[in-house]
From TrEMBL:
Known pathway: Amino-sugar metabolism; N-acetylneuraminate degradation; D-fructose 6-phosphate from N-acetylneuraminate: step 5/5
Recorded family membership: Belongs to the glucosamine/galactosamine-6-phosphate isomerase family. NagB subfamily.
Name of the protein this chain belongs to: Glucosamine-6-phosphate deaminase
Species name: Lactobacillus gigeriorum DSM 23908 = CRBIP 24.85
Keywords carried by this UniProt record: Carbohydrate metabolism, Hydrolase
Chain's role: Catalyzes the reversible isomerization-deamination of glucosamine 6-phosphate (GlcN6P) to form fructose 6-phosphate (Fru6P) and ammonium ion.
Database matches in PROSITE patterns: GLC_GALNAC_ISOMERASE
HAMAP family in alphabetical order: GlcN6P_deamin
Domain Glucosamine/galactosamine-6-phosphate isomerase: 18-218
Upper lineage: Bacteria, Bacillati, Bacillota, Bacilli, Lactobacillales
Reactions this protein catalyses: alpha-D-glucosamine 6-phosphate + H2O = beta-D-fructose 6-phosphate + NH4(+)
EC assignment: 3.5.99.6
GO MF, one example: glucosamine-6-phosphate deaminase activity
Superkingdom assignment: Bacteria
Cited NCBIfam families: nagB
């Protein structure tokens, strides 16, 4: 794992964008994208750039179950607002939170990823070491699946909702196996609340109790953190 420590989120966003830009110039066509507050500075650099995205495909990590794409809390909405509206891609995929047959949808999403292998996968990390919504205890060999969110994640994500009761209780998300199959991974994390998760991911044992720890086994991972998130390393 390569660890890059930047002074602040803005510098980190620039560094992350430089990696994506280079990969795209070198031929990357399929990007695995992520939501949350962490990638915002990356997307800001992206929309301000002159990078042409019309030949790119994106596949997002996850979506809340039960939210319509036009719901401002949905990850569909987030991606439109922060990236796709300003930088149209050839094709964008975000899991369908309204799928009527979720297991069948998850199989289709796995097939989509097989048919469009991900060149660069962007990740954030949860305070408990989750990646996408793969919570502690999720098997490492799992594909796209429906996940019941932990209290910890519901609490952390409630800051985006008016009431904690409005936070969906489950999500559809790519599994750890899908993430590990991508050729290159860029993980970003900021702030003191992420410091322990970063330490466990980088230095801890590889265990399903810390989903991000599996990244130690991936051959090409770049971790971009600010000083606070790096403070326990
Ligand atoms: C959610 C998302 C993750 C994200 C994490 C951290 O659980 N499903 O993909 O990495 O939150 O979010 P933030 O970047 O807002 O701290």
């Amino acid at each position: 794992m390569e660890i890059i420590v930047k002074e602040n989120e803005l510098q980190a966003g620039k560094a992350a964008f430089a990696i994506f830009e280079k990969a795209i110039k070198d031929g990357a066509k399929v990007l695995g994208l992520a939501t949350g507050s962490t990638p915002l500075t990356l997307y800001q650099n992206w929309v301000e750039s002159d990078l042409d995205c019309s030949d790119l495909t994106s596949i997002n990590l996850d979506e809340y179950v039960g939210l319509k794409p036009e719901d401002p809390q949905s990850y569909h909405y987030f991606m439109q607002k922060h990236l796709f509206d300003q930088k149209p891609f050839k094709k964008t995929y975000v899991p369908d939170g309204l799928a009527s047959d979720i297991p069948a949808f998850c199989q289709e999403y796995d097939q989509l990823i097989k048919d469009n292998p991900i060149d660069v996968q962007l990740l954030g990390i949860g305070r408990n070491g989750h990646i996408a919504f793969n919570e502690p205890g999720t098997p490492f060999d799992i594909g796209t699946h429906e996940v019941k969110l932990t209290e910890n994640t519901i609490n952390a994500n409630s800051r985006f909702f008016d009431n904690i009761e409005d936070v969906p209780k489950s999500a559809i998300c790519m599994g750890t196996a899908n993430i590990m199959a991508s050729k290159k991974i860029v993980l970003m994390a900021f702030g003191e609340q992420k410091a322990h998760a970063i330490k466990m991911m980088v230095e801890g044992p590889i265990t399903e109790e810390v989903p991000a720890s599996i990244l130690q086994k991936h051959p090409d991972v770049t971790v971009i953190v600010d000083e606070a998130a790096a403070s326990e390393l």
